[in-house]
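Q: Got a minute? One more chain.
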Amino acid sequence: MAALAVAERTEAPLLEVISLSKHFAGVNALQDVSLDVRPGEILGLLGENGAGKSTLLKILSGAQPPSSGQVVFSGSDYRPSSPDAAKRAGIITIYQELSLIPTLSVAENIFIGRAPTTTLGLIDWRRMRRETRTHTARVGLSVDPDTPVSALSVAEQQLVEIARALSLDGRMIIMDEPTSALTEAEVQKLLGIMDRLRREGVAIMFVTHRLEEASSICDRVTVLRDGRLAGHLLRVDGQSIPIPEIIEKMVGRAASELYARPNRRQAAGEVRLSVRGLRTVRDPEAPHAIVLDGIDLDLRAGEILGIAGLVGSGRTELARAIFGADRIAAGTVTLDGQAIEPKSPADAIELGIGLVPEDRKHQAIFAKLAIQQNFSVAALGDYSNKAGFMAEGRERQALAEYRKALSIRMASPEQPIEGLSGGNQQKVIIARWLTRNPKVLIVDEPTRGVDVGAKAEVHQILVQLASRGIAVMMISSELPEVLAVSDRIVTMRKGRITGEMPADEATEEKLMALMTLNQRQGDA
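A: Always. Here it is, folded:
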């Protein structure tokens, strides 16, 4: 999104946070944090996982009280006793995990618990539908108010959440990672709606890991680090806020270090995985609905092969086909020169193939289970005795070794994995596969939802895996990441490979051309 020309705002703040602190059992989650948000302004709240963002949001949303400090909203002392009290005051929080009820309609979700009634005390459905259309139109959503939320896309559900916030007369909306599950086109639409709300005078606090979005849409950003205020950055002369400056405040070191090429290793070995003429279809009953169309590629032992492509290019589908999660309609896959036909992920795992999926929360972790259980789930046979019971000592010792090797920060192995940061969750998932000593490891979006400081750690881990002789296939939407970590890069578009080059010869411009222009010319 293009940088917007935003004049320096002079009106009084709508929200003021003054020397706010929050302590938990000797841990300072927030320490003396101050910030403000003005009407008609988008403030980015940024920081690594564990920086204190979530704690601040819980205080502002009424889920937790502060230990000390003051919050002033609309000129009055603000101490909400509950999330409902915060909503009544005019601060609405939209979380990454949407709070809609899928079986109810759009109208019912927007007016849940406060449906308009007739003089007889019955629900006034006509009025509720009419007002729903007004609110959804304000956010650019054109759907029938009676449509079940389950029938909507994630992006449309996000807009329903925003429409509900506006129906509550929210003067300030807090958006917590609203773009994490959206396509690029959906992201741009959401940012456009945020800009429209800003122009209508709504204040927005925008929490995101995607720094390019914060840079382009925010009037200011406030950065937290280790529970303290690291600084504020302001848009100057309508230009985007420089991402390197944001990163430096977030991690305390220069941005160039984060995407620096990790220490390299020896040359790649023999071909470990080979794919020829790979073809998959979305529906076996409709063979014309091709997803992957004649994919040819080789992956060598000790190599990191980067797969680059826009959303819908077939990158994830390629990973799923190799891992046995999607049926292969045609073509061959060989592993160490032997033809393989994995019919399921279980088959692929037994063959020595591992997959770290892009949707960590729904496809990789068991959120309520302990870190220990999440770690060992792919190799239960290695951590059980002859009687079939878990050998907990052996299991615990293995996790301790990987905890040290991968620098996994946790309180204890019994801690639920949902309590870890995104970066540490990702390390546990990688450790899960390492315990099986895979021949091939496919990592899809390895740093999605991971803070900028942890990115470099994950990158170095991938390099270490390749140094052990593991063949690594890395799929990423971030071209700087592809360039930094890969030895060789393959580009895709519309289920086809459009190019290949050594990473040392690649640039973002070359890759983008192969991902878009060249294939379009071929399509023509």
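A: The chain has 18 helices and 20 strands.
Q: Perfect, thanks.
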